[in-house]
Amino acid sequence: MQLNETHDVGKRSWLDSANQAETDFPIQNLPFCVFRRACGGTAAIGVGIGDQILDLAAALESGAIPRSPGLDAAAAQTRLNALMALDRGEQSSLRKKLSALLDASCDGAQRERAAGHLVPMRDAELLLPVEIGDYTDFLTSAWHTERHGRFKGLQDPLPKAFFSLPVAYHGRASSIRVSGTHATRPWGQIRDAQGGVRFAPSEAMDFELELAAFVGQGNQQGRRVEIGRAGEHLFGYCLMNDWSAKDIQWWEQVLGPFLGKSFMTVVSPWVVTAEALAPYRGRMDPRPAGTAAILPHLAGGNETLDLVMEAWLQTSRMRGEGTPGVRLTRTNPRNLSWNFEQMLAHHTSNGCNLRTGDLLGSGTVSGASDDAMGCMTEMTSAGASALQLPNGETRSWLQDGDEVFFRARAAREGFASIGFGECRSRILPANAGDSAAS
Amino acid sequence: MQLNETHDVGKRSWLDSANQAETDFPIQNLPFCVFRRACGGTAAIGVGIGDQILDLAAALESGAIPRSPGLDAAAAQTRLNALMALDRGEQSSLRKKLSALLDASCDGAQRERAAGHLVPMRDAELLLPVEIGDYTDFLTSAWHTERHGRFKGLQDPLPKAFFSLPVAYHGRASSIRVSGTHATRPWGQIRDAQGGVRFAPSEAMDFELELAAFVGQGNQQGRRVEIGRAGEHLFGYCLMNDWSAKDIQWWEQVLGPFLGKSFMTVVSPWVVTAEALAPYRGRMDPRPAGTAAILPHLAGGNETLDLVMEAWLQTSRMRGEGTPGVRLTRTNPRNLSWNFEQMLAHHTSNGCNLRTGDLLGSGTVSGASDDAMGCMTEMTSAGASALQLPNGETRSWLQDGDEVFFRARAAREGFASIGFGECRSRILPANAGDSAAS
User: Fold this and answer.
1) Which residues are within 8 A (CB) of A151 and not within 5 positions of it... i.e. 6 or more apart?
2) What is the mean pLDDT of residues A399-418?
3) How far is CA B256 from CA A62, A315, B249, B253, in A?
4) Is A194 touching B (CB cutoff 8 A)?
5) How many domains, in total, are found in chain A?
6) Cβ proximity of B248 and B186 under 8 Å
């Protein structure tokens, strides 16, 4: 993707909060969301800038941004899908217009018009931004896969196909929720060490730190997307917590994960566009020596998004103590063995049709080192060695009240640093009502 | 579910075609579809009767059926979802009104009004009837599972969890198409006996004969549906061909089926309601001696739908010869180890929310005997022993031009026999254009 003036590190906004070093949303970012004013009102598409949200439809209507029929219709929706389905040129042109409107050099009537359509983030409720038709979750970290394979006692912890294709499974779309939604600890069938099976609340709750991509333009059923054009179908990215109940998953899993994950998956509310992320690319980890060459239909370069991704834990006690939480993980998509272009090309290689709004998860983003593990299962060797938290608490698995939040930033020499906002969710106690019923 | 006058075997319609013994659509059936007149026009909801389709919205508007605001709005849609989400009492009341309107005793102005809104099936195009949010496919035939496990050389061909819970995986919703849509032979990664992997068209194409249920009213995320109430959430049923490319599936499968099935799944266009099927229930196959008792949250009786389900094959040569095809399979959902009430209760047991229009597949409906195998993989021992067809052709796997169609009928002493219509689809040659690209 071409870099242009919207990526310029020297660019500053007339909004002070957008020029602070720590903001996730400088003028170089301009991510999309769907929001509702806390005081009520309908859902609307917004653009993040500093600590404010620009109401896109209102800005268009007021003339702050030059209008076009396709853009007007897309901006008036209550999900991002129509905007995501627009021609890439039109999307890029919108980014330029937004960048110009919020630039420090914009003043007078234009700036005033824009200022009239800003809503402080603290006064807004962020909603699930996209209507997700199908959700696919990949498994692309060899580190995560190997560690899991070893816990299961597999002789060959990495599946044979791992470096030949990006392993994936279909996930559950209905239960995807936006950051801030809490997950009720699920009940399920759990097998004990003696082989007895009971129906009970999960005792092995885990988070999984993932990066996820939203499909922009889809493809026709029966026609695959060439690897060289796969990037054109990736609209933008968010963070994702693939909540998992490992004990449920271990017993049920014959044809892949099912109830161990389908109770809830949580995504961050901001869709950071592929165009905003264009400068931040890095080489993926090299493949092990002797690994077969990637087949031509998936040979798509060895670069991926270069982000620092973090998982944090705040227990109930930490909340009581006023502690913001403890960082558990610091990892990077460069630790993965496949990039999103390869995932998308593989997904369509059999003619499967992707639709605008489909969500592709990277799988747990784990790296080689102990502080780059993307889930508790890895950190505790599947519950065998408890995590020691700084306040004296320990965790083999997540407890009720534990809140997990993810952050991510992209940075590169000569470019601004942009962020993703938070993906935050808490474990709520299992429904007691189920006890009697079971 | 209560039986009532709509199930009465003595009931006849004023439409002769509905009174023929061989029709799938006597007045006791009244399945729903979405259709479009072949001469053009918009999609509309229809009711099948004999060889005709009653245009539901038009019949309501004309006063042929008593109106109600909820029903009017639902009938005016171009998918069945709103109708499926109605209160069960309202759905049952609609069935009674339709049954009365089409009954031989209905005459005069009412009959004339109804007759004015009939469209011959041969003049209509049947569309995908439901907007499917999530599609879940189960694996509930022990016969199918055991045979597959043996082909794979598994010591223990039946997974340990098989009789403890209905095994399932999430399927791909975007690629579900209606009967009459043909499947392009997919390309994929295929591993040969020497361990080499190539990207090529599948050489192991198979059908899988399934029964599938559409969810009517959904459930709230975090709240499971009790087994005793699961039936209230099942709106109706169709036939489903879970097209499979077994060679792609064998290599890719780590977390369940993915590209080996996601290129296309085909459903029959008629949704036969749970209420129409209420009389036709039979005992499921007994579980093997020594199998642990079903846990209380899934203990839901041992009955299921009693249907004769058939898979037929018509090769290109048979079409040329004017032969309608050869029957490959004759099976029954009674061969399965779990019923749909159990599948739905299990699916929601972790709090996963089902939505109106979600589709639940039974998995391949295979029985014990050689003529009750629901897929080619079983019939040919995974391609090892070719099928001998009556016209001298042989098949290890499906060839280009092969058309597979399914039929099913429900019958019970003292009740009319009702059918499902056809689920029909053909294998088209792989895209040649992909050859150069690979």
Assistant:
1) A377, A381, A382
2) 97
3) 51, 34, 9, 5
4) no
5) 2
6) yes
**Cα A87 to Cα A79: distance, rounded to the nearest angstrom:** 17
Q: Say whether B333 sits in a helix, a strand or coil.
A: helix
- Residue B185 contacts residue B429 (beta carbons within 8 Å): yes
C-beta atoms of B350 and A186 within 8 A: yes
Tokens of A133: 């038709």
Mutate to test the interface with B, among A138, A182, A258, A348 (most CBs of B within 10 A): A258
Task: Provide mean pLDDT across the span B265-272.
Answer: 98
Catalytic residue among A7, A144, A148, A233: A144
The distance of B379 to chain A (nearest Cα, Å) reads: 22
Q: Same domain, yes or no, for B116 and B198?
A: no
B165 touches chain A (CB under 8 A): yes
Residues B14-41 have pLDDT tens digits of 999 999 999 999 999 999 999 999 777 8
Q: List CB contacts of B71: < 8 A, sequence separation 6 or more.
A: B60, B83, B86, B90, B94
The pLDDT-based confidence of B435 (bands split at 50, 70, 90) is: very low
Give me B199's structure tokens: 């990207």
A227 touches A300 (CB < 8 A): yes
- A168 contacts in chain B (CB < 8 Å): 255, 258
Which pair of structure tokens corresponds to residue A400? 């009720």
Q: Which two tokens stand for residue A381?
A: 């060797």
Are A333 and A224 members of one domain? Answer: yes
Contact (CB<8Å) A221/B248: no
Model confidence at B411, pLDDT cuts 50, 70, 90, reads very high
Strands of A248-361 (E only): list them.
265-267, 272-273, 281-283, 303-305, 307-314, 326-331, 359-361
Spatial distance between the Cα atoms of B39 and B350, rounded to a whole number of angstroms: 48
Structure tokens at B115: 């007759």
Rg over alpha carbons for chain A, rounded to the nearest Å, is 22
Find out whether A249 and A263 touch, Cβ atoms under 8 Å. Answer: no
* pLDDT (tens digit per residue) in A255-268: 999 999 999 999 99
Tell me which residues of chain B, numbers 126 to 145, contact chain A at a CB-CB cutoff of 8 Å. 133-134, 139
Catalytic residue at A144?
Answer: yes
| Cα(A296)–Cα(A312) distance, integer angstroms | 39
Helices (H) and strands (E) in chain B, counts: 11, 27
Q: From the annotation, which residues of A make up the binding site for Mg(2+)?
A: 242, 261, 265
Our separate counts of H helices and E strands in chain A read 11, 27
Question: 3-class SS at B83?
Answer: helix
DSSP codes joined into one string, A115-150: HTTEEEGGGEEEE--S--S-EEEEE--HHHHHHHHH
- Asked if residue B235 has pLDDT above 80, the reply is yes
Tracing tokens 């995908």 back to the chain, one arrives at B128
**Residues A234-260: pLDDT tens digits?**
999 999 999 999 999 999 999 999 999
d(CA A112, CA A104): 13
Domain that holds residue A84: 5-127
Last residue of a domain, which of B90, B108, B127?
Answer: B127
Q: What is the CATH number of the domain that holds B32?
A: 2.30.30.230
Q: Do the chains contact at A175 and B352, CB–CB below 8 Å?
A: yes
CB neighbours of A275 closer than 8 A, spacing ≥ 6?
Answer: A1, A6, A91, A92, A95
**Both A77 and A196 in a single domain?**
no
Kindly provide the ipTM of the predicted complex, given to two decimals: 0.96
User: From CA B93, how far away is CA B6, in angstroms rounded?
Assistant: 10
Pairing, β A176-178 against β A265-267 = parallel
**Separation of alpha carbons A179 and B432, rounded Å:** 45
One domain, residues B33 and B181: no
At A260, which CATH number? 3.90.850.10
Residues of A in contact with B352 (CB under 8 A): 172, 174-175, 259, 262-263
Q: What is the DSSP letter of A37?
A: E
